[in-house]
Each structure stands twice: as C-alpha cells, then as structure tokens.
Amino acid sequence: MSKSLYGDRDPHNTKSKHKPISSSTAASFSSNLAALISSAKAKSSETTPSTTATTTTTAKSNKRKSDIFTSHNRNVKARAASDLEQVHKTKSDLDSVPASELHRSRRKMEEKARLYKQMKRGEHLGRSDYTANSLVDFDRKWFESGQRGAGDSGSGSGSGSDGKDDRDSSDDDSDLDNADEPAEWLDEFGRLRKGTRREKERFERQQRIQQAASIAVLEDQTYPQAPANIIYGDTIQHAAFNPDARIAQQMAELAAKRDKSATPPPETHYNASYEIRNRGTGFYAFSGDAQLRKEEMESLAKQRAETERIRKEKERDEEEEESRKKQASAPDNVQGAMSDERSAQTKTQTEKEVDDFLNSLDIPSGPSGG
C-alpha cells in the first residue's frame, strides 16, 4: 500500500464511489441543458424593455436633480448674453428709472472708484500681502503708464525720436542686466540697508506709492490731518517754564482754589419722614429749620431742668417726713427702757431683803454643840 505525503491512504477512498455515466444519460442531460438555456434567453428578452425603461427613468430623475454648482447662479447665460449686447441707455431711457435706483447705482460706482484708488495706492491690502494676493499688478500698470506718457511726449520731438527710443531700449536692457547688482539705501527708519538694485527700486517705488497715498488722503480729507507742531528729538520746552497769559490765569485760579480754607459740609440731621416705621415713646421729631430746631432744643432743656428741680424737692420732702417719723417714735422707747431699769432695781432689792431676813433668823445648833 503506497503512502501519501499526509500519511496512509483511507482504504475507503481507494475505490471510486461514482458509477460511470452511460450514453443515454449524457444525451438526456444535454437536451435538458439546451432547454434551460433557451428558456433563460426568452425570459431575458421579456424583461429587457422594463429594465431599459427603469434605467431611463432613473437617468431622467438624476438629470432633474439640483446641482450645487448651478443652483446658486441661475440665469447666468441670460445675463452673459445681455452683457455681450452692450446696450447703453440714453438720458431719455434713464428718465423712466426711479431716482432712488440711480442714486444707489451712483453710490456703488463711487465706492468702486474709491476702492480702486486705494488698491492702486496699495492701501487695500497689507504691505506683505500686496504682491502675493493682488490680482492686478498696479506697479506694472504705473510703470507702463509712465513709459506710455514718456513715449507720447517723445513722439513730438521729430526725427530724433527714433534715436531716443533706441537709447531707451538699450538703457532698459542695461537696467535688466544690472538688476542683480549690489546696492545700498536708507529705509524709512534711517537705517542703511544692503541688497540688490531690484530691491532698492522696489523700496523706492513703495515709498513713492505711500507718499502719493498720503497726499491723496490729505486732498480728499477722509482722515484727520496730522498735527504740524510735533516735536522730534531732544528739545527744551521753554513754554513749560514761561506760560502765556491764559495758562498763567488758569494756574492762578488753581492756586486760589488750593489755598482757600476748606468749606465745612452742610449740616444734615435725621429726617423722620424718610422712613415709614413706628418709633419709641421718647422719640421727638425735630424740625428741619435751624431756628425752630434750636428753639425746640432750648424748650426741652428748660423742661429737663424743671423736672430735675421737682424731683429734688420731692426727695427732700421724703427725707423730712422720714426724720419726723423717727422723732415721733423716740418717747415710747425711753419709757420702755425706764420700766426695764425699774423692774431690775426692784428685783435686786427683793433679793437683798430675802438675804437679810434669812441671816437674822436664830437657828439652834445640833447635839454635838451642847
């Protein structure tokens, strides 16, 4: 018995369990397979139109679905066509336009012109973002307009213009060649900077733009003007030690207020009408007038003195009554003392008489005495 890679073979698998297929069975199987294929084709042909219709409906529905790139900008083609026509309105056509709409359009155009001037001067964007984020190179436009103006002025010089143009073109070529040459310049803070000639020209161009912008701002007066009396550097301010007449008068007034004696605060007293509550028995509401308040306080002081005088008189009368009662009870005490002394003397005399009587008796002696 041969061995396989995984060990001994299973003896049950050595013999085939399947019986050989006969020719009649194969023929019947092929006929059944052909019938199934034909039926499958028939079903697929029947279901194809419905599937196509479903696909068409789905495609149409997908086409009708709104698109984020077209929904927010509707009628753009109509507006573009109207822009291409460039139909300018005359004054007679503008008469039918409301005045408010004309005023709004004029205000928008003025705002756009102002913004364009700011962008041209380099104020709309920051200095660092001017060349990076600007869609229009205003420096180049300014340079080209300067060249155009120079060309127009030179065109009227006659036959010498051609030679001048040749020289200008040669100078431009030499300037481009010398753009990377080292150069030195002073910045806005007075520091000596070193760099290329191109950087120097860029700095000078920025300075010219800023100067033109400041001049335009002063002309438009859109911003307040800077004060002209600003002091730069080390300066001795003599006006601080020699003030003019107005400042001297103000200082004198301040000194008079400082040296004036302090004004006492006004007298404020308790006002019972400010509170709604019950007071005690001894509460007295004084008047708000100073004179009446003084009279009321004097009246209270007199009443107090009178009360104290009556109280002292009452106390004196009580003391006199007490002394009089003591004097009235004094004789009864003397008589009692005298009777006690008399009874004591009587008792002593009685005892003495008894002793004398007993001593006077003659008592006989006993038998021992005979």
Structural key phrases:
about 375 residues; mainly alpha; two-stranded antiparallel ribbon; 11 helices; disordered C terminus
Give a quick summary of the entry.
By secondary structure, the protein is mainly alpha-helical. It is built from eleven helices and four strands, in the order ββαααααααββαααα. The strands form two sheets. The chain has a two-stranded antiparallel ribbon. It has a two-stranded antiparallel sheet with strand order 3-4.
Strand content: under 5%
Distance between the termini: 189 Å
Rg of Cα set: 69 Å
* SS-derived structural category: mainly alpha
* Uncertain segments: 50-55, 156-164, 365-370
The number of E-state strands comes to 4
SSE order, one letter for each helix or strand? EEHHHHHHHEEHHHH
Annotation field: number of helices: 11
Q: Can you summarize the main beta sheet? A: 2 strands, antiparallel
**What's the helical proportion of residues?**
55-70%
| Average pLDDT, all residues | 72
Sheet with the most strands: spatial strand order? 1-2
Shape: elongated
